[in-house]
Please model this.
Amino acid sequence: MPDEINAFVPGPPVHIAGRPDGPLSGLTFAAKDLFDVAGHPTGGGNPDWANDNPVPTRHSWAVERLLDAGASLIGKTITDEVSLGIVGENAFYGTPVNVRAPGRVPGGSSSGSAAAVAAGVCDTALGTDTGGSVRVPASFCGLYGIRPTHGRIDVRGMLPQAPSSDTTGWFARDAQTFARVSTVMLGEAIATTLPERLIVAVDAFAFADPEAAEALQPMLEKLKTLIGEVGEDIMAPGGIVQWARAQRTIQPAEAWLTFRDWIERCNPRLAYNVARNIYTGSQISESERHWAELVRREARGRMRHLLPPGTILCLPTTPFPAPKTGEPLSAASVQRDRILCLAAHGGLTGVPQVSIPGATVDGLPIGMSIVGGYGTDATLVAVAKAVSATR
Amino acid sequence: MPDEINAFVPGPPVHIAGRPDGPLSGLTFAAKDLFDVAGHPTGGGNPDWANDNPVPTRHSWAVERLLDAGASLIGKTITDEVSLGIVGENAFYGTPVNVRAPGRVPGGSSSGSAAAVAAGVCDTALGTDTGGSVRVPASFCGLYGIRPTHGRIDVRGMLPQAPSSDTTGWFARDAQTFARVSTVMLGEAIATTLPERLIVAVDAFAFADPEAAEALQPMLEKLKTLIGEVGEDIMAPGGIVQWARAQRTIQPAEAWLTFRDWIERCNPRLAYNVARNIYTGSQISESERHWAELVRREARGRMRHLLPPGTILCLPTTPFPAPKTGEPLSAASVQRDRILCLAAHGGLTGVPQVSIPGATVDGLPIGMSIVGGYGTDATLVAVAKAVSATR
Model:
């Protein structure tokens, strides 16, 4: 398979046929290189991770699930190093090409999975989302993507980052495929009844670039028409920045615990900014973590209060479309922090979120996100399907 | 040239004949890959440094000097990444073999230069010493090595790290060759008159492992016999740890200024501990730097007071012989900090220092160092030559 979009990890091809006559038969999928595929190294986006860890002998749960349902695996995709990154630039393997936004990043850390689906190389692809790693590339590449309710999807055989935030997600180009795959992954039929109330997260819309918020208005109107009852509210009364800061405390501190033994044993090669993030995580104090956990508790309560059964929330997935590739480090850090502000509620609270192709700004895609209460993943997929049918 | 000791950087061979009939004709030398050699990339021990910087069109001053004197260049040697390292393990190019201490590190950052000279692959080799990068590998590989008076040797064409501490040094296996090369590099004949007074740095000897200090006693006796008048004193009345801490403030803060633009532009791949060191340097406050500069001022005054003309100081070059290769990161950090304590006075004060093969501990070499007042480099070389003749 020629890899003109640089979506796949180097090495021997990975091709495993799905079970015949399954619900996903005929579909092809790729798996982010954090998911174990028996007999193939799990690279984790870093050459030393593969060198320093054994080749898995079993498939990860998610890969097994899709193969059992009939989808065929066609490759393992590039990820930001050990999933620590949000723009999708990997210093070792390069940047997967975002065919929807030439010269722009694909978003990360599920960069290759999003790039492959966007380019039509496969029908769906597995990603992971700890702090935005499915939602952000879905937004930047104009795809459907889901971050499921935390804890709902089995993460066995998936390289962890920050377990209290880690989730397994997936991408598709169209709502029908997205719904088919979601049915299998969630183990639940996609509802035909829709939510009754839509809340517009005014703080999140105000945080986005004005042009992005403006461009999303037609999609917002469609959602309003579809759902009927509409309200406006602040998602994070204490501030999305406070939530982001709490997530940026909990997640790197946990990531340090995840990678500490590897770092200590192997002193791996890493891009400077990845090493900096890991080291910063190692320096977070117990007291800071404690305050962040209290913010998390409050945020979870806020989401339960805001999102009773039948209510969904909508917000821009990202504050702007995909930035240019090769930005200097400080500029990229500023962009990253803004992106993480709009995505932090996911890892912090664990609610499910679906990003749908929302609009284009100067031809560049940007996602609209819908968020529901805990366990309402299938409802969000149903909304994505329904709103796509109204186009 | 087969490189069984992994001393040389990968790539096309670098062979440049020296000028015929020079004072060093017949000698071969290698240059640490921080020194420019016209037409060859300066790798700096990191694959992204070479990628991100132009191929030099002129030789560095030090390479030119040796070629002009008749020595022939036979290769460029592995260094710790951008000279940030003291044990000589490079995550990209591997660890040069220390033939004098199998299974042990060669010391760094001038690791390949020391390894090549120790193995007899060349007669002498250029290194750099900012915080110990010539003295430490000289100690670990059983070589003669010099850190000249700061500012004495032209550093044109040498990749800088922390300019207020950077020096160009060199190694040799025997005192005769060391003296020949030193004459050329220093541009000064090696004196025949020796110093009149030797001070034993009791704080430094006490800081070394007891077995190392004990093993160095016979060499200390030789020095005492050679020089005649002997005293004991404390090198750093405020503590060698205070000096080391000041150096570990000034040096990483300056290194950050040196590499900041490269990091910002290229986000290079680095071993975790190298990235951590650079990032730590970026976080040092103005106020900390200010206090460290005051300690430096006091330390320079101390050296002027302690080392009037005709007086030299001696101390163990390192607190122990070469540690094992592949130590876990935290153990390596502890070793590094102790090594830097005994070496910090060099970068902090700028006095010249020569390390001579001092003893072996369980068969592993360890260096004895002699330190003199500013500009007394040739006198120290003369002492090295004289003491070697007394064996």
User: Anything to note?
Assistant: The interface with chain A takes residues 48, 89, 91-92, 263-265, 267-273, 275-276, 278-280, 328-330, 332 of chain B (CB under 8 Å). Residues 240-266 of chain B form the longest helix (27 residues).
